[in-house]
Amino acid sequence: MAALFFYIFSTFTVASALAVVFNKNTVASALALLMSLVGVASIFVLLDAFLLAALMVFVYAGAVVALFLFIVMLLDVQGGVRKPFKKITIASSGIALVLLALGLYSFWKSGAQTTAELGQIVPVGATLKNYGELLFTTYLLPVQIVGFLLLIAMLGVIVLSKKFEGLEDIK
Amino acid sequence: MFDFYFHLHLIVRLVLQSLAVILVLFPIAAACSMAERKISAWIQGRPGPNRTIAPIGGLLTPLGLVGRIPFLGPFLQQMGIFQLAADGGKFTFKEDPVPGHVNKFYFVLAPIISMIPALTTVVVVPVGAYFAVVDGVKVLKPIVLANVDIGLLAVFAVSSLGVYSVILAGWASNSKYAFLGGVRASAQLISYELSMTLSVLPVFLWINKPGGQGTLSLFDAVQFQSGVFHGFSLASLHGLWGVCYMPVSAFIFLVALFAETNRAPFDMPESESELVAGFHTEYGAFKWSLFFLAEYCHMIIGSAVCILLFFGGWNLLPWVPLATLIDWLSHFISFAGHPLFMGLVGIAIFLGKVFFFIFFFMWVRWTLPRFRYDQVMDLGWKKLLPLSIANLLFYTLGIALLQK
Amino acid sequence: MAVIQVERKPLTFAERTYIPQIIGGLKTTLKHFFAPTVTLQYPEERPEIPKGYRGVPTLVKDPHGREKCVSCQLCEFVCPPKAIRITPGEIPAESSSVHVEKGPQAFDIDMLRCIYCGLCQEVCPEEAIFLQNQFSMSGYTRAEMVNNKARLYELGGTLPDQHFKWDKKKAAEEHGNAH
User: Fold this and answer.
1) Domain limits at A53?
2) What ipTM was reported for this prediction?
3) What is the count of structural domains for chain A?
């Protein structure tokens, strides 16, 4: 049963991820991204990581993609006029390819884990308490760094978007 | 009597339960549309729809016969019950035009998407409680489709998807009014989600003691509010409803709820005087009615969550939990101890509170004028958000000091 | 006139939160919620027509049952939208009111044209045409919307008369001092 659901959801996720890349319409791409995120969340549910699933839907599907869509609509990006290959596209595809190869290599190297071993893994993401504890102990530094990064980005946006009147002479 | 039910396959049982919930939710949402018309009428000194009566003959014969019962029939007619049936029939069977200039796929998809969060969030909302005997011990169990640990987060997560139906409807309609409505809606929903989330955190700070099992379950939130009065002390906070010691949280949550459900005075997405009808300008017939039903479903779920968090859930009064009420009732009624009876009483109390909240929504709608859009944004970002952050800090410090 | 500067008090904190005002508004609407409705259940309950109401123009008879119209056609001439059409006729010799000499043979008012201005009532020297309380006219065809003589008398009925002009005239004639 779980295996069946896993195949359904993973196919759905991968298919919508492909749709993100190959869709010509930007809005359709953003919606495919949304579907892909929901698919990932459902795989989290299959892994009993309900908290991660809910956070995935809440933060990414609920807010981030909504903002994407919002911006895409406001900028009125015309679909179908994108140039197929820019230099940056080639570079980023190259990086993505390397990452994919690395992932596949490590997957092949570590070998398949048996189900018995999988059962012994503590579902850290399942309960709120474990999750919170890890965030505030083991992963405190990365969390702080990411938070700081976001703060800088936010300040940058404010500086870029706001017109500071009466400050011209200071510059 | 109902033992056969427990012999059914789990999936069959779950499907039956879900159907039961939907079969309750849908008629309530539909009845809300009539309640809205009636309440608006009464507030404005009108009688509201009171003429329609079903004909005898054809498919509506049973309804028509009900309408001919003396006293009851005319009363139902006065209350517009048959108008409701007529509305439903009209929305289902009238021509459903799709304008030529729209993006057809997303245009049809949007109303369907609007129903998804409205119906999915019900899954984690408990509506009552009953005593079950587990291993010889009486345990209070919630009446809920899925009693998950992250109940509240799941509600927020799924209901945050509701914004897509509005965005899509606005974008796919390919009309400037609809588009403006969609853009306004998405900005508004995202802004108020923040204050809403921050306002409920104190509730769970109270519930989750240091060192205890962390939970976001809505059932536990009600359990925290169902205690008996033992003199004024910290312990008797358990019997008090959340609104009594977290009035600011409840207020922020309620205001954010009005904004999240696009109800007046925050009905920016469909402000008639500026945007024709906002995001559903181009919609008609059944698709439009889906948007409407979804709005009412959102209202029902939103008020249900608000009741669970701040207004004592299925407890009749502060310090009078359902179990005490049932104990008291069992002096008069022999079968009061039956789990079925207890469940029904709990659901009745809960639904009564939900109905009051829906009335409150409508009452506010027909009292307050709409905000201007910049006022909505101002209120959301400059007033409610700092207030909810201050509120959170206050309770964090307070609870830390109290529980030290 | 000098401009008066009104000193406005700054809003108090409670006023700036709007909450007292909102509660006040809610109280008001709740009061109206429980107040009886003011709407008339129209087809069953009819509104009270005020005095001097100008409804559908009608023809009236005097208390003796005599048609007051003498088909002078003044109303036809004065009617701004030309809604009135009168075919004058003679009063037959065997009638008791033969001394009036003339009466309408046909009298049609096209209610699709009538603008309810009341000029016909104003101009009528015989006080024979009145705009009365009837305010709703409806029909399925254009022909139905034309009131003929019979219908006009049916709508108008009998109104009290102060003068009995033609009776006096007849009496005077019999006494030999007609003018």
Assistant:
1) 1-82
2) 0.73
3) 1
